[in-house]
Amino acid sequence: MKRILLATILALSFTNSQSQTWTTLNSGFNESLTSLFITPQGKVFVAGTGGLFATSTDGGETWNQINASDGEDIEDIFFFNENDGMILYKDGVLLTTDGGATFPVFGSTTGELYDLTFADENRGWAVGKDGIVNYSTDGGQTWMLQSAGTSEDLETVSFADLNHGLLVGKNSLARKTSDGGSNWSNAGVNGNEDFATVSFIDANRAWIAGAGGEIFYTSNGGTSWTPQFSPVEEDFFTMHFVNASNGFIAGDNGTIISTTDGGSIWNQNNTDVNAPLNAIFMVTHDYGFAVGDNGTILRLGDVSTGINEIKNNISIEVFPNPASHFITIQSAQGNEIQRIDLTDASGRLIMSLIPEEAKMDFSIGDFKQGVYFVTTTNIDGAKTISKVVKQ
Hints:
Radius of gyration: 20 Å
Shape: globular
Helix content: under 10%
Number of domains: 2
Oligomer: single chain
Distance between the termini: 57 Å
Number of strands: 35
CATH superfamily of the largest domain: YVTN repeat-like/Quinoprotein amine dehydrogenase
Structural class: mainly beta
């Protein structure tokens, strides 16, 4: 009876996952797309080989292509908001303050780098070939070296906050830090394949995935790891968790799997492409993008229900700003807030709640210094995003 019940649950889960529809967008690109980023305001950035860099403000329906790196392959993108961000290529990083229209500032790095991330508007890490780790304290303008204690190629780095980070790479390499990268140690993951991607959403919970469909999970900051069952054996290249429950992993042959329970059950999604998918970025559990070889761009959800619902709404106030201990969110009379979401500068969900009144106070005293975004969803579905600086 238990086996029958379990089979029924798994069948229902698989059936539900099939209802998710990934749409192939006509990008017009032929280059391999290697990186993807979506700002809290809904602007989509993609980049790839041959210096391809493009932006979309209408949910991927149209793209504005920009010559950002003089033809050099772009490895990764990171933006703090719609305007301020950077691209990573083999010689360093290029910074922009106008949403990628121009990249006038060059930040010199060391080594051949594949991936970068920032924990706040100042402190970031970039990793790459032969165990190289670069570290910035000024938003990517200058970089210095950290020692990860390995010479294996590093594929991806993820930080839950300013102190707790994980990096992964070839030969099941996984190393962790609890002091911002000053010291790295073996994370003790017993994998059999190359690791390609990691998502560290808070100081306790993280996922690692890689070749052969391997997935590992920790709930104690990397002290111990548990393998999770994947419905496929394809090589995984990229992963993004919206929160502790909802996550997506993508990889070879157009493969995407998703979970709504932190990985206890992973379900295969429907796509109509066979190209390797190199980057995935989810705004919510039912809206996001994945990109891959041959100009492949996939979107889950449609524009009408996606991030384009975000609208400016002057009847929502968030104050004080900057703030040290508390912020107040207040809506005008008759403008009922249905939900409040708080995300950090990388788009990671920190908190989501249903407000009980038009004016609410929130404690941010324990938050790290940096930039946060408050997204309020009104009863009519309109969204307002407010930027808050924790000082």
